[in-house]
């Protein structure tokens, strides 16, 4: 045994080391529902911060960002201000990406009109924390099953350029029979603007001659969403 190993073996365990073992055991034995939000965040941070009590940090992050999903989607700059390393920040962001892709995978090839709340939740998860506008397209086949989902354009904090001809072309390329439009308002106000309404009507007019249906246009804010269909705008 080397001198370093001997010292490590005789070193008293920090109080949080036993805590980590107990928390992992609860997670594996009783499931995630047995842990509070800050404890789930602790377990995640264990992988990135091996020698530190992360409970105060987990509680502080949740207090600042008001929830787990908000923490996972916080900007790197804000997370850095809490002392998180790039390794820890990368871990948080990859968990967010995995959750989003898993949800998209669940929706793929399924009739979306039977899972409308999941569609809305997915759009909210995908865009509610974006600081710039983006325009997403969900392409459905003739049986209203999701066959493709993609960001069509990215813009500024209050504008995204949208080109109906490109939307129609892409719909034909993937063999879509219907489309769900979605974009975010970083301001948080999900009220459709005149530009939003005019643009949606232009897209609808371009799709109509080809038999493409626009099921809805969803606007996503940080805390809520608006549906063109529910508002009587489609």
Task: Describe the overall structure.
The chain is of the alpha+beta class. It folds into two domains: 3-100, no CATH class; 112-227, 3-Layer(aba) Sandwich (Cytidine Deaminase, domain 2), CATH 3.40.140. 49% of the residues lie in helices and 15% in strands. Strands 2-1-3-4-5 form a five-stranded mixed beta sheet, with helices on both faces. Helix 10 links the parallel strand 3 and strand 4.
What features would you highlight for this structure?
234 residues; alpha+beta; 5-stranded mixed sheet; Cytidine Deaminase, domain 2; single chain; 49% helix; 2 domains
* Percentage of residues in DSSP E strands: 5-15%
Compute the number of strand runs: 5
- State mean pLDDT (0 to 100 scale): 87
The CATH class of the largest domain is identified as Alpha Beta
- Assembly state of the chains shown: single chain
Helix content: 40-55%
Order of helices and strands, N to C?
A: HHHHHHHHEEHEHEE
């Amino acid at each position: 045994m080397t001198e370093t190993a001997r010292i490590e073996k005789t070193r008293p365990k920090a109080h949080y080391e036993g805590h980590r073992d107990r928390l992992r055991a609860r997670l594996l034995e009783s499931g995630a529902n047995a842990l509070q939000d800050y404890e789930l965040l602790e377990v995640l941070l264990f992988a990135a911060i091996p020698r530190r009590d992360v409970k105060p940090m987990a509680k502080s992050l949740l207090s600042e960002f008001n929830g787990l999903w908000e923490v996972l989607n916080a900007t790197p700059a804000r997370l850095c201000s809490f002392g998180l390393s790039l390794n820890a920040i990368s871990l948080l962001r990859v968990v967010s990406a995995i959750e989003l892709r898993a949800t998209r995978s669940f929706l793929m090839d399924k009739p979306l009109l039977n899972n409308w709340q999941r569609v809305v939740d997915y759009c909210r998860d995908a865009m509610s924390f974006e600081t710039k506008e983006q325009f997403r397209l969900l392409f459905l086949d003739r049986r209203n099953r999701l066959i493709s989902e993609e960001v069509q354009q990215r813009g500024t904090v209050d504008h995204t350029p949208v080109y109906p001809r490109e939307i129609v072309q892409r719909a034909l390329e993937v063999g879509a029979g219907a489309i769900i439009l979605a974009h975010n308002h970083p301001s948080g106000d999900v009220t459709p603007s005149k530009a939003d309404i005019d643009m949606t009507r232009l897209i609808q007019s371009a799709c109509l001659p080809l038999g493409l249906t626009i099921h809805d246009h969803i606007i996503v804010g940080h805390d809520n969403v608006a549906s063109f269909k529910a508002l009587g705008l489609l």
